[in-house]
Each structure stands twice: as structure tokens, then as C-alpha cells.
Specification:
The chain is α/β, with parallel strands linked by helices. The protein has one domain (about 5-200): P-loop containing nucleotide triphosphate hydrolases (Rossmann fold), CATH 3.40.50.300. It has helices at about 20-30, 40-45, 55-80, 100-110, 115, 145-160, 175-200; strands spanning about 5-10, 35, 85-90, 120-125, 165-170.
């Protein structure tokens, strides 16, 4: 029986550079790993409205995103051509957008930190450029946060994902290119470590 590929979450606040880093890795290692796309962007691009104020609709949106993220990861796991999956965000990102308590999030989705963390070998977090006052404007039509909102969201996501036992933080840098370089080096290290673990299991 073949082993399941190990999953690594690449996440962070808006304007952190994770998409750029993932695009570079996708091109460089196209035959060795798979990149699971971000569920939220797929759903928004398909026409789902991004809710801002209606609590009930915000919850329904996040439930839908969570379920799609789960389905994407399961599908990529069964079809993967290699030992690794890089996930563009993970199932706990929605907690940062949840308009109620942590307990309500986990109760609603019938899950827990432990259950979700157990799905991922590692987490690589790209801090938002807004943390040091940089402009995060991009061509992504689904990024609606201003710098203050991006920083607050980044802090929420850090608090959530930093609890993972194999957490790696890519700090913001005055040079975006240097930051991407550090991020790629971090991903490379985690990939090498994960490959060793996969081979030894």
C-alpha cells in the first residue's frame, strides 16, 4: 500500500509573498510535488460573495471554504505524483475570519486544533509586508484588506498557526526579494526534512 504524501501548509497574512513563492516552487518542482490551490480564491472567483457584516452569511461562507479545502486536499492526496503536497493555506485559516469564538468554530465544524494540526507535517508562515508599513496593493481582486486590516489578520493567523509543533516563520524584510529568498530557503529545508521522514516511514 502506497504512503500518503505529507502535507505542508504555506500561509500568512495578505501581502506576505506566499503566492509568489508557491508559483516559483510549482515551476521548479512541477514533477516532484503538488500545490493545492487556495479554496477561498476558487470560490470567490466562481462568484461567491465575500461577506463583510452578516454574521450568519460569514459563517456559511467559512463553512463552505473549509469543506472545499478538505475536499481539495483529499483529492490531491489521492492523485499526487510524489511524496509532498504544498497547501496554499490550510483548514484553520478560516478561524481568523470567524465572527464568533474559537469554541464555536470548532463546534460548528466538528473538529479541533489537534485534529487539524495532525493533517499537516509543517506550517510555513509568511508575515505580511503591511507589518512594516509596506503597501500590499496587488492585482488580486479578492484581496480587500487595507494595511491595518492585513496586519490585524496576520496577527490572528500567527496566533492560530504558531501552535503547530513544526511551525516556521518567514519574517517580513525591507527587501521583498530577500524575503522571498528566505521563504524559498525555508520551504526547501522543510521539504528536505519531510522527504527524509517520508522515506523512513
Amino acid at each position: 500500500m502506497s504512503k500518503k504524501p505529507l502535507k505542508i501548509v504555506v500561509t500568512g497574512g495578505p501581502g506576505g509573498g506566499k503566492t509568489t513563492a508557491l508559483d516559483l516552487f510549482r515551476r521548479e518542482y512541477i514533477d516532484q510535488l503538488n500545490v493545492v490551490p487556495e479554496a477561498a480564491s476558487l470560490m470567490f472567483s466562481a462568484g461567491m460573495t465575500r461577506q463583510q457584516t452578516d454574521i450568519k452569511k460569514i459563517k456559511l461562507s467559512q463553512i463552505a471554504i473549509y469543506k472545499m479545502q478538505k475536499n481539495l486536499e483529499e483529492s490531491f492526496t489521492s492523485l499526487a505524483h510524489g511524496s509532498l503536497l504544498l497547501c496554499d493555506r490550510g483548514t484553520l485559516d478560516g478561524l481568523a475570519y470567524w465572527p464568533d469564538s474559537e469554541e464555536d468554530y470548532f463546534r460548528t465544524l466538528n473538529t479541533s486544533f489537534e485534529k487539524e494540526f495532525s493533517e499537516y507535517y509543517a506550517v510555513i508562515f509568511f508575515q505580511t509586508s503591511a507589518a512594516s508599513g509596506h503597501n500590499i496593493k496587488s492585482n488580486n481582486p479578492f484581496r480587500t484588506e487595507d494595511s491595518a486590516q492585513a496586519t490585524k489578520l496576520d496577527e490572528k493567523l500567527q496566533e492560530i498557526w504558531s501552535k503547530h509543533p513544526n511551525y516556521h516563520f518567514v519574517r517580513n524584510n525591507t527587501s521583498f526579494m530577500k524575503k522571498i529568498g528566505m521563504g524559498i530557503a525555508t520551504i526547501n529545508k522543510v521539504l528536505l526534512d519531510s522527504q527524509l521522514r517520508f522515506d523512513n516511514e
